[in-house]
Known about the structure:
Number of helices: 10
Largest sheet: 7 strands, mixed
CATH superfamily: NAD(P)-binding Rossmann-like Domain
Number of strands: 14
CATH topology: Rossmann fold
Distance between the termini: 32 Å
Number of domains: 1
CATH class: Alpha Beta
Strand content: 15-25%
Order of helices and strands: EHHEHEEHEEHEEHEEHEEHEEHH
Amino acid sequence: MDGIDVVFHCAALKHVESGEYNPFEATQTNVVGTQNVIDACLATGVRTMILTSSDKAANPTSVMGASQLLAEKLVSAATNYRGSRPTRFASVRFGNVLGSRGSALELFFRQIAAGGPVTVTDPAMTRFVMSTDRAVELAIRAAEIALGGEVFVFKMPAARLEDLVRAAIEVVAPTTGRDASVIATRTIDPRPGEKAYEELMTEDESSRAADVGDMYAVLPSIEVPAEVAEGYRGADRAPTGAYRSDGVPALAYDEVVRLVRETYGRDETELVEAARG
């Protein structure tokens, strides 16, 4: 990291079910790996480090979520022990980034390309969703405004799982030579550690969060440096209460289709490659 100004720490084991069966691997990558990145940033004088975390870090019910929460805590605490070194540390929480590797849409696309069925745990489940471009834009914004120790929570739209599946079938089936009307769905049991909704910010976190436009800045539960507290003194407070995907209006189906097309529809080749995995 010599000569590097900004580090985006995006590496993680993020598959919920794999984390349940391999908690030691999730700990090595998500926790120990994050501490390694922190130490390297401090040793080389990096200006800003941003950890990309997950909504599953809020009230975690899985190993993956718990390990991401601990990674966030490590990053926030680094602000207090950096001493005279200049690095600013902060985290960002995403929901589902639709174009990212391992996202649910990739699985749906492969199943559609194979002729179905598309497997769904519960059509009524809700998920926070955003495009890759939007995620990158907001992560860069967080790096620009971070003062130290914050967890930035993006104000993301939510979608019903049923609508995501329908939209994936509508958009992808024609590109793979399939008839969308005959692609079936099949309900399966929830995976270990899976929630019916997603939570980006807990009620406790909302009590120490500032509203900074496109996102909330959650300040650490530990004492923060005076310059960080001063930087948010005049900011609007976040609404009190958990920020959950079942507590915000769900996107209309047409909006979900548009978001899927935005993510994969720039080029038909891109859709076909995603469908084939």
